[in-house]
Amino acid sequence: MRCRLRRRVRGGLATLSLLGMSLGSGAVPASYDPLAKPGGVAIARQDLVVHDSGRDREIPVRVYLPGGTNAAPVVLFSHGLGGSREGCAYLGEHWAARGYVGVFLQHPGSDESVWRDQPIEGRMAAMREAASGKNFMLRVMDIPAVLDRLTEWNGSRGHPLRGRLDLGRVGMSGHSFGAVTTQAVSGQTFPVVGARFTDGRIRAAIAFSPSRPKRGDASAAFGSVGIPWLLMTGTRDIAVIGDTDVASRLAVFPALPAGDKYELVLFDAEHSAFADRALPGDKMGRNPNHHRAILALSTAFWDAYLRGDAGALAWLPGDEARSVLEDKDRWRLK
User: Fold this and answer.
1) Less Cβ around it within 10 Å: N or C end of the chain?
2) How many domains does the chain have?
3) What is the model's pTM?
4) Domain for residue 2, yes or no?
5) Is 89 part of a structural domain of the chain?
6) What is the mean pLDDT of each run of 10 residues along the chain (334 residues)?
7) How far is residue 124 from each of residues 80, 120, 154, 241, measured CA to CA in Å?
């Protein structure tokens, strides 16, 4: 019996209609591969600074620019506590090779400057102090400031980004403190303080090491998220600072409304699995397949929800997505 399955990509980008197969059947166009990178593609890096005059704040950014001259979808990335715009380069390089402009932010006040000039014995205390509500607010306000400046640069004659940014197709992502930032600007509500920081320009979001709010109900915080979300965590994803445990990571997905929501849980993956390198105190060895899975699933997600790629949308719930994972990894959607 032939069946028809329709699934609409949010934002009006595309509609997938499949005749004679189910999305769960593993029937995906053979040509779709989120790990494939076109040969001979040159990725350019641009280090720029966004000046937010209203706050007298300088926000460094690293831009990964794909080859060519056409406008491309834009993906923002927010680093974790103590990081910088240089972190998670493996993501920026792969996404750019796949045709995305990666804009990796650096958040003053919760970046590498917090610990770099501190004596070793004082670094943890400095990091804990930086994990503050004040820095959360600074980060949340950095996102619209950067998007505003990208819009300006995209139209500025002589600027290296002129005409290169498709700001109608924007994705948001981040790791750890950057995941908290991502959640805040892409749909989370804050019932305790009665605030919402959602930026309507963001069409889809990926949170690496997400977490539920420390106060209030998770369903109240995440129950009205209206855009596609992809969550990635691990069975050992514990943050030393902030004491965020695995249970907090796993509480986000059940609280999300159904429709274009995904969760990856990597077996034995620690907090650093989503970063470039191991962190002091890590107990498990690095698993090379973790980055492979992260790149494949994140790229397919961007392709599906920023490009409206029917092959990617069919790949995500199919057997092909499972094929990049190991047996004990968990992949689910709703």
Assistant:
1) N
2) 1
3) 0.90
4) no
5) yes
6) 34 33 45 90 93 97 95 98 96 97 97 85 84 94 98 97 98 98 96 80 98 91 96 93 89 98 97 88 89 98 98 96 97 97
7) 14, 8, 40, 8
